[in-house]
Amino acid sequence: MKGELKELKLTVNGKPYEFKVKPQTLLVDLLRQELKLTGTKIGCLDSACGACTVHIDGKAVRSCSVLAMQANGRKVTTIEGVADGDKLHPIQEAMVEHGAIECGFCTPGMVMSSKALLDENPNPTREEIREAIQGNLCADEGYVKYIEAVEIAAEKMRGGQ
Amino acid sequence: MIADFEYFAPKTVEEALSLLSQYKEAKIIAGGQSLLVVLKQRLLTPEYLIDIKGISALDYINYDESKGLRVGALTLHRTIEKSPVIQKHFGVLSEMEKNLATIQTRNWGTIGGNLCHGDPAGDPASVLIALNANLKLASSAGERTISMEEFSKDYLEVDLKSGEMLIEIQVPTPPARTGTAYEKLMVMKGDMGIIGAAVSVTLSGKDGVCQDARIALGSAASIPLRAKEAEGKLMGKVLSDSLLIEAGEAAAAETDPPVDVHGSPEYRREMVKVFVRRVAQIALEKAKAA
């Protein structure tokens, strides 16, 4: 029936959840409104800016452009699931220390796109980093510091210092 | 924001086809990377939405030299981009995917969804026309095959009948000494092409004469446009730069480009000239090296 609520089961940041949702609910709205995980930002809601980037089964996607129902049975990771308690992920740490964060609105998306890259490719070239965050717009034009921060984080994660 | 609809998530093709025959007005969603934009704007307000994203049987890439390439309709853009088999035998498809939107979109969007959206700016359609690809469609009444070229009907309209869905993309193995290339004009990598050009050139083994040429243009008309006049300029000739310029001019004359914030029809026609010449040159070099 039209407007009928649908059952949705998914894992968010390692915890299993069950919901009843309207099928047109976007994943980003489920995360922000139902789970209050407001670290994931809404910039454009039109698949243009990348601020809403999260991982589904380890891959970076735009949560404004995925129906929550399409995440049924899957594992979602948001920016809140990246740090280890109070200990920032090396990517977050590098972005803070290197001054990559200006207004910070695009930062959660930048972290999620960079993390998807480094999870797959621990030693990316600069070009690969640029490609990975190509879908994340920074209104402060702060791309260079972000790219450098990902390089710093990658090196640290590989065990260098 | 998105209007109410009744939602179904079939797990098999049979189940999807049965739902499609039952709900004639249903809209299909795959990755939704195009459809959700349209639903949010309420350009479409379907009563029924059939979500086929979970049909894992349509996510595959098979290659056999005699049969060519077979790609399941729900294969992700990112999977095509990264496929070693596609990189080896159909490099142009992988290259095209690299600039199709962003990684996030390619990680969720499917090749079939892109084709069925019917946007003349879409990258895969032009490349698949140049590669002489066919599409396998299915309904509860049976299957049919249609060429990629015939599948496009008008702006955002494709030849999918009520109850039908796209199952598979079939790309024949190109003849020997064939080169295919694709490029588009974009402001930022991953943008929709302001115009796009896909060119395939087949040379004869002994004298290097162009035996076959296929040229398809994106954002140059209300459908991905096959530029047959331009192809005619190349057939039966030993290709020179002046011929490629002529082909570009012929192609531009065949277009009926849209006007939008990205460019006027006049600008697009000029760019068609530039891109047909440029891409044909790349295709020619690939054909010589093949």
Key terms:
heterodimer, A: 161 residues, alpha+beta, Ubiquitin-like (UB roll), DNA polymerase, domain 1, 2 domains, 5 helices, 16% strand, B: 290 residues, Uridine Diphospho-n-acetylenolpyruvylglucosamine Reductase, domain 2, Uridine Diphospho-n-acetylenolpyruvylglucosamine Reductase, domain 3, 12 helices, 24% strand, globular
Compact overview of the structure:
The complex is a heterodimer of chains A (161) and B (290). Chain A has 161 residues and is of the alpha+beta class.
Write the topology of this structure.
The complex is a heterodimer of chains A (161) and B (290).
Chain A: E1 6-12, E2 15-21, H1 27-34, E3 53-56, E4 59-62, E5 75-77, H2 90-97, H3 107-120, H4 126-132, H5 143-157
Parallel strand pairs in A: 1-5
Antiparallel strand pairs in A: 1-2, 3-4, 3-5
Helix pairs in contact in A: 2-5
Chain B: E1 6-8, H1 13-22, E2 27-29, H2 35-40, E3 48-51, E4 61-64, E5 68-72, H3 77-82, H4 84-89, H5 91-98, H6 103-106, H7 111-117, H8 123-130, E6 134-139, E7 142-147, H9 148-151, E8 152-154, E9 157-158, E10 165-171, E11 178-184, E12 196-203, E13 210-218, E14 225-226, H10 228-234, H11 241-254, H12 265-289
Parallel strand pairs in B: 1-3, 2-3
Antiparallel strand pairs in B: 4-5, 5-10, 6-7, 6-10, 8-9, 11-12, 12-13, 13-14
Q: Round the Cα radius of gyration of chain B to an integer and report it.
A: 19 Å
CATH topology of the largest domain in chain A: Ubiquitin-like (UB roll)
How many β-strand runs of chain B? Answer: 14
Number of strands of chain A: 5
Oligomer: heterodimer
Amount of beta strand of chain A = 15-25%
* C-alpha termini separation of chain B: 51 Å
State the major sheet of chain B. 5 strands, antiparallel
Number of helices of chain A: 5
Uncertain spans of chain A = none
* Proportion of residues in helical segments of chain A: 25-40%
Please indicate the count of domains of chain A: 2
